[in-house]
Amino acid sequence: RKEVEQDPGPFNVPEGATVAFNCTYSNSASQSFFWYRQDCRKEPKLLMSVYSSGNEDGRFTAQLNRASQYISLLIRDSKLSDSATYLCVVPTGFQKLVFGTGTRLLVSP
Amino acid sequence: DTEVTQTPKHLVMGMTNKKSLKCEQHMGHRAMYWYKQKAKKPPELMFVYSYEKLSINESVPSRFSPECPNSSLLNLHLHALQPEDSALYLCASSQPRGGTEAFFGQGTRLTVV
């Protein structure tokens, strides 16, 4: 089993739609989790940090299910500008961030 | 705007050249990282420096040589690279304790010819 797994997509959704991505991780000892957004040919940018059961920031909600070892990212009222690759990142061991393969989102008019 | 700055943004080098990538951060972070990213793949960790000392080397070939002159600067020296080393090289920094988020520079897009 990979340390961090994501559905690569792409997810094609219309503007205004709600879309959710899941990410599963294998290290049950992980305490923190991150979602990064990466635009084409740009660097990853931190979108949300999750340290407990979840986090919400505007249209974005991240939820953690420790029992099933997955993290989800929900995007409500999708905008064209949300089109990007969303990377699930789980720290494993000291200062080592493990990236999922990323989920590509395409929001269309 | 990123607070981690990388130079140059683009670099084309021959297989016999020697070049260096540079990274600077002013967030007071004491952990700095080099990642390599190929197209349509996630970033892959290369090196981690913690308090200016190399703490992780992910079995990177010796043609890549990292250096951390001080707490704000990180270099990656390149020598005798291969065309398959062409990639986006990302620098990142974070607090030195485990489990914290990292902040990335804009990257250097390297092409080896």
Task: Give an overview in words.
The complex is a heterodimer of chains A (109) and B (113). In chain A, 0% of the residues lie in helices and 55% in strands. Chain A has no helices and 11 strands. Chain A has strands at residues 4-6, 11-14, 19-25, 33-38, 44-50, 54-57, 60-65, 70-75, 84-91, 97-99, 103-108. In chain A, the strands form 2 sheets. In chain A, strands 2, 4, 5, 9, 10 and 11 form a 6-stranded mixed sheet that branches. In chain A, strands 1-3-8-7-6 form a 5-stranded antiparallel sheet, with no helix packed on it. Chain A is globular. Helices cover 0% and strands 57% of the residues of chain B. In chain B, strands 2, 4, 5, 6, 9, 10 and 11 form a 7-stranded mixed sheet that branches. Chain B has a 4-stranded antiparallel sheet with strand order 1-3-8-7, with no helix packed on it. Chain B is globular and about 40 Å long. Chain B starts with a strand and ends with a strand. Chains A and B meet through strand 5 of A and strand 5, strand 9 and strand 10 of B.
Keywords:
heterodimer, A: 109 residues, mainly beta, six-stranded mixed beta sheet, five-stranded antiparallel beta sheet, 0% helix, globular, B: 113 residues, seven-stranded mixed beta sheet, four-stranded antiparallel beta sheet, 11 strands
